Amino acid sequence: MQTATGTVGQRPAPAPPSLRTPDAEPVVTTDRLTKRYGQRTVVDALSLQVRRGEVFGFLGPNGAGKTTTLRMLLGLVRPTSGSATVLGRPAGTSVAQVGALVEGPGLYPYLSGRDNLRVLARYAGVGPGRIAAVLDTVDLTDRAGDRFSTYSLGMKQRLGIAAALLKDPALVVLDEPTNGLDPAGISEVRTLLRRLAAEGRTVVLSSHLLGEVEQICDRVAVVASGRLLVESSVEELRGLGRLVVDADPLETAVAVAGRLLGADRVSVVDGALHLQAAPGETAAVNRALVTAGVGVTGLRQEARTLEEVFLQLTEPGDPPPAETPGRRPRRVGRSAR
Ligand SMILES: Nc1ncnc2c1ncn2[C@@H]1O[C@H](COP(=O)(O)OP(=O)(O)OP(=O)(O)O)[C@@H](O)[C@H]1O
Ligand SMILES: [Mg+2]
């Protein structure tokens, strides 16, 4: 596995089979996509791929550059350098096949949900026939005659997604689609987005909330300060767990593990060796320690929540992987390229 810190002989355990084929054709490709505002680089050489039919989460703290990146994918912001390809064409040129909810759809509070969609459909050059279909998709048919202002936040969000679906797009781009929703609202959006993916559409969404992304997405890109930290499936990201080893002598164990994994993945906590390692690396660690004459009396993998992984990756003290020459953002498991 190629990691930010070196190559380990053993590959991590394969993730559970996914409905999505790993080699599915990319719907979005960015190549060193960069945006600078004055001296500030807000998106920094971002290279990633989104595959057809997946729900892809763009995850990062406030100010990470998520909205700016989505706007570049939509052709609303011009990159400073690098490029983005969407549905095989330069970003911003496949407008007819891309539905987006980035700025808020500008819905009129005093119009009904259906009338709002009528206005937007006319504006987008879409026939009125699509309106019933998208209302059905977002499960708002029963309330379509009610004023938008009387909708719950979750219903408003779903109507926004309905608006993004009017053009029957192959790619749906949603900026923070679950922002402000309660667990029931998130669950509704989740069901809706899964349905879109099942129909063969690709969904790219941004979020700063891990819990949501964990529930909704197939794969994620974690970004902070404009840089890609990890691109991975959710399962694989969680699999980058902590390996706790009781070893003697500890100093030798630290040195051996450091050589194998890189010193920044090794620490000592309460007299035990703590390694940042995927489950598939356990055997290689054990073998290296034993070969070096270290007694291993305990070896256990502690699964981490995605939240722990995220906090660790986005910790301000952590040097961003892409900063040092020769270091690359971590691509985990099957997504390794
Ligand atoms: N038009 C602009 N001019 C100058 N700076 C900008 C502009 N648009 C965005 N930025 C800056 O770019 C950085 C990233 O902003 P962006 O909105 O992309 O972040 P984000 O990840 O979407 O954050 P949030 O989670 O808060 O929505 C911020 O520091 C922001 O101030
Ligand atoms: Mg944003």
UniProtKB/TrEMBL annotation:
Residues 1-24, 314-337 are annotated as: Disordered. This is ABC-2 type transport system ATP-binding protein. GO terms for molecular function: ATP binding; ATP hydrolysis activity. Residues 28-250 form the ABC transporter domain. It comes from Geodermatophilus nigrescens. Belongs to the ABC transporter superfamily. InterPro entries: AAA+_ATPase (IPR003593), ABC_transporter-like_ATP-bd (IPR003439), ABC_transporter-like_CS (IPR017871), P-loop_NTPase (IPR027417). Residues 327-337 have a biased composition (Basic residues). Keywords: ATP-binding, Nucleotide-binding, Transport.
